[in-house]
Design a protein that fits this description.
The protein is α+β, with helices and mostly antiparallel strands. It is built from 13 helices and 7 strands. The chain has 3 domains: 199 residues, no CATH class; 76 residues, Single alpha-helices involved in coiled-coils or other helix-helix interfaces (Up-down Bundle), CATH 1.20.5; 121 residues, Heat Shock Protein 90, CATH 3.30.565.10.
């Protein structure tokens, strides 16, 4: 590392991001301490009348909310997405939820981090305030030392010795000391901030066991999604192209029988068979496009989504910036997120317009499909969006749906795509 990088550390954007992280940690430590002390003391004191159990369960959920904020704060500094992984505690009543939450390792890791935060968040944030205040105070001395009266001039005491500002030489010496202190403060705060963020990631990111459980769920979801896809193809073939090919064969058989005795009727049957053949070809082409669109392989995601938007039942505004060609699996997943979402808009939303945004942000591909329809979409079991969620989760991504009655729907997917 050269001298210029060392000396210019205070003016880099990363330095102020680190300072913001430490100051937010100072505030978060106070809020966390108040929440933990209040809720834990109330829950434990009321255990004797069993009212404390719901309070402790609520405390665990408050801890999750605070831990999620901490993940976002650490991700803001480390420039990465830090997710959490919790066991599913929905359904089956209060005692089931209590047992699942109490035995979830992430619950205790959250609690451990929040306890640490009340100490190191407060200490590191206070240290940052003190260091920056003193450094900038010394650095600014040459700008204002001549303004106050002599009795109010600044001085510095180290041990039993005191240095006072009594002229330009001492003022410039103070400023030089402030410059050195500012550089040192920037590096010290960088170490404090990154140390705290890395410790937060260590405790708040999913552990190995959670990761194994998540991979088992996504693998199962991928198998189910593949089975659903095969069943859909079989159903479409049976109800569509296969039925038309059967009708085509029957028309041609009848035409052959009438060819000698009634040529005009035979010609009409051949014409009908020709139309059935063209319709079957169209349906087969649509089926192949539904399995994997050729334009996606040949020209990429942008062109494939443009073709998809052109066939959509409502006007679609596209904003696609994938950052170059992606892997085949990622492009297919992104394509089908948009395709299924637009199909739902056409079938159920009663919308007048839809918006599609695809963009690469760091190591994440973000996909958003929004409409101005009647809302009510959900990732319900057995629905098209549930299959999409499984497809996205199989690539270690996530899919969420925001849908309020009368306010349209927003389908968002985030899929890791590498740096």
């Amino acid at each position: 590392m050269n001298v210029g990088v060392l000396l210019l550390r205070p003016v880099r954007a990363a330095t102020w991001r680190e300072l913001a992280y430490l100051l937010l940690g100072f505030v978060a430590s106070i809020v966390t301490f108040a929440a933990l002390v209040t809720l834990l003391s109330l829950g434990v004191s009321l255990l004797v009348v069993f009212v404390g159990l719901p309070i402790l369960l609520a405390t665990a959920h408050v801890n999750r909310w605070l831990a999620d904020l901490e993940r976002q704060r650490a991700g803001f500094l480390l420039r990465e997405r830090i997710g959490g992984s919790y066991r599913d505690a929905s359904g089956r009543g209060f005692w089931h939820r209590l047992r699942v939450v109490a035995t979830d390792p992430q619950t205790w890791k959250d609690f451990a981090w929040l306890l640490l935060l009340t100490l190191i968040g407060f200490a590191f944030g206070l240290a940052a305030v003190v260091l920056w205040a003193n450094s900038l105070g010394l650095l600014s001395v040459p700008l204002w030392w001549w303004i106050p009266p002599e009795s109010a001039l600044p001085d510095v005491t180290v041990g039993s010795r005191t240095w006072s500002v009594d002229g330009w030489p001492s003022a410039l010496l103070f400023g030089a000391a402030g410059l050195v202190a500012t550089v040192l403060t920037a590096w010290i705060c960088a170490a404090l901030a990154h140390g705290q963020a890395l410790l937060a990631r260590l405790l708040l990111a999913p552990g190995l066991q959670s990761r194994v459980e998540q991979l088992e769920r996504t693998r199962s979801g991928a198998i189910v999604a593949q089975q659903d896809e095969l069943e859909r193809i079989e159903r479409d073939l049976h109800d569509g192209a296969q039925a038309r090919l059967v009708a085509l064969a029957m028309d041609l058989g009848l035409a052959r029988e009438k060819l000698d005795g009634d040529p005009e009727a035979a010609a009409e049957l051949v014409e009908s068979a020709h139309e059935e053949a063209k319709t079957a070809l169209v349906e087969l082409r649509e089926l192949v496009r539904g399995v994997h669109p050729v334009v996606l392989t040949d020209r990429g995601l942008d062109a494939a989504l443009s073709a998809l938007a052109a066939r959509a039942p409502v006007p679609v505004s596209l904003d696609v910036h994938p950052g170059g060609r992606l892997t085949r699996e990622l492009e297919v997943a992104a394509y089908f997120v948009v395709a299924e979402s637009l199909a739902n808009v056409g079938k159920h939303a009663n919308a007048e317009h839809a918006w599609v945004r695809v963009a690469r942000r760091g190591d994440q591909l973000e996909i958003e499909v929004r409409d101005d329809g009647r809302g009510g979409a959900s990732v319900a079991s057995g629905g098209g969006l549930a299959g999409l969620a499984r497809r996205v989760e199989a690539l270690d991504g996530s899919l969420t749906v925001e849908s309020t009655a009368g306010a349209g729907s927003i389908v968002r997917a985030e899929i890791p795509c590498g740096s």
